Amino acid sequence: MWWRNLRKWRWFTQAAIVFAIAGTSAGCWQPLYGTARIAGAEGVQDKFAGIDIPPFKVQKIAHGPIGSQGTPDERLAVALRNALQFDLHNGAHTASPLYTLVVTVTGGQFTAVVDPTSGRPDTQIESVSASYTLVEIATNKIIVKDNAFAHVDYDIPGPQQRFAGQRARRDAEDRAVLVLADTIRNRLASYFVAGT
User: Are residues 23 and 49 in the same domain?
Assistant: First the structure.
């Protein structure tokens, strides 16, 4: 019967050790995208608030003359800028920016599957890529320079449903833009946290 008491004490000592270890490391954890809990410290979200996002450039306009507005590539650039403003600023504007994010957007598509009887595409892949640079405004120094891309596939329902095919392409572009905005946000967060 004494061994039952020993089991209870063993469980109690193991639980005490776990809680002691958790208690010593509890102050080390900080939320990545939340505001800093320590007075005077800046979190990643505070750093994001200092990034100015001017309108993006479109590298290649394949669907219209250069400089024309309303093309699919121009729509991708506007959608990516809006997604980044939401991800970095929660939709608000920066009061005094410390950084400028310069982005060049390229869009395209290619056919993955072709119907052998009609010769029309069944599945296409929408490709959106961005070359971005984070520039410090005070020194005009390039801090982060990188590329990001997203490939999203979509099905074309058939030759009779061409509007459904256009809507599928638009939805694929929107999904690719969200993936691209998340990739850029995560890369910038990596720089602000680790300096790399």
Answer: no
Percent of the chain clearing pLDDT 70 (strictly above): 76
Domain count, the chain: 2
Tokens read off for 139: 């020194």
Residue 143: the pLDDT is: 93
d(CA 76, CA 92): 21
CA 74 centroid distance within chain: 19
How far apart are alpha carbons 77 and 125 in whole angstroms? 18
Q: What is the pTM of this model?
A: 0.74
Tell me, yes or no, whether 76 and 111 share the same domain: yes
Query: Can you list the positions of beta strands (E) in the chain?
Result: 51-52, 57-58, 99-114, 121-136, 141-155
Whether residue 93 has pLDDT greater than 90: no
Q: Domain check: are 75 and 127 in the same one?
A: yes
Classify strands 57-58 and 51-52 as parallel, antiparallel or unpaired.
unpaired
Residue 182 has pLDDT above 90, yes or no: yes
Tokens of 14: 């193991």
| Conformation bin of residue 140: beta by default, left when phi > 0, alpha when psi is -120 to 50 | left
Report the distance separating Cα 95 and Cα 104, nearest Å.
24
CATH number at residue 96: 3.30.160.150
